[in-house]
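Hello Y.,

Per our agreement to keep a running log of every chain we model this quarter, I'm adding this entry. I've kept the format consistent with earlier entries: sequence first, then predicted structure.
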Amino acid sequence: MTNVKVGNFSIGKGEKLTLLGGPCTAESEALCLEVAEYLSKLCAELDIQYIFKASFDKANRSSGNSRRGPGITKGLEYLAAVKAKFNVPVVTDIHESHEAAIVAEVADLLQIPAFLCRQTDLLVAAGKTMKPVNIKKGQFMAPEDMRGAVEKFRSTGNDQVMLTERGSSFGYHNLVVDMRSLQIMRNIGVPVVFDATHSVQLPGGLGNASGGQREFVAPLARAAAAIGIDALFTEVHPRPQEAWSDGPNSLDFDQIRETLIQVKALHDLIG
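Predicted structure for the entry above:
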C-alpha cells in the first residue's frame, strides 16, 4: 500500500486513524470555524489525525432551487481561515477540471465526488496538481472497478490517492454498504476511507431533497472499523436540523464524539 501524506501526517498502513469531518456545505465562515474548533480539540483529545471538510459548492443537489454553497472564492476563504486559526489540513470537492488548480492553492487534499469518479479529465486535472486526492466510489460502481479511476489518476505521476466507500444504489431512494468493498479497494494498493454519513443517505428521499437515517451512522462506522479502514469521513453540524444540505444524516457534536470513541477503539484493536 502507498500511504498518503496530508499536511504533516500520513494516512494508511501503520498510521493513526484519520477523521475527515465537517459540515456538508461551507455555509459561513463562522460555522466552519465553530465545527473546526470542536473537532480539532476532540481529535487531539482522542489522538486522531484531523482534516477539516466542507464543500464550497454542492453541484448535484436534488432540486435546482436548493442552496449550493458560497461558491469557490468565498468557500476557499473560509477554508483558509480554518487552516490559519487551527493549523489543520482541509479538504473540499472539485466538480470541474478547471477547479483543480485553483482549489489546490488552498486545500491540502482534493476530493472527487462519487458521481464524478469516472470523469477522466477531472481525475487527470486533480492528479496534475500533485496534491493528494480522495476519490469517492460511485454509488453505481463495483469496488474492483475503482482500479480504473486510480490508474487514470496515477497516469499523471501522482500516486497520492485514496478511495472512499459511501454505499451503493439499492433500488430507489436507498443505499446499501457492502463491507467487502473496503478490503477489495485496499487490495488495489491504496488507503481506504469509510463515509459513514453519506452511506445512510436516502437520495431524493424527501422529494426535493435527500433524506437520511442518522441512527445507523454509528453501527456502520463500527462495522467498517472492524473490517479495517484508514480514515473515517463524517458530516458534522452543531445544529443538523438547520443544515443547508444532508442534515438528516449529519451528526451533531455529541454524536460524533461517541462515534469516534467507538471507531478509534476498534481501529486500534485490529491495528
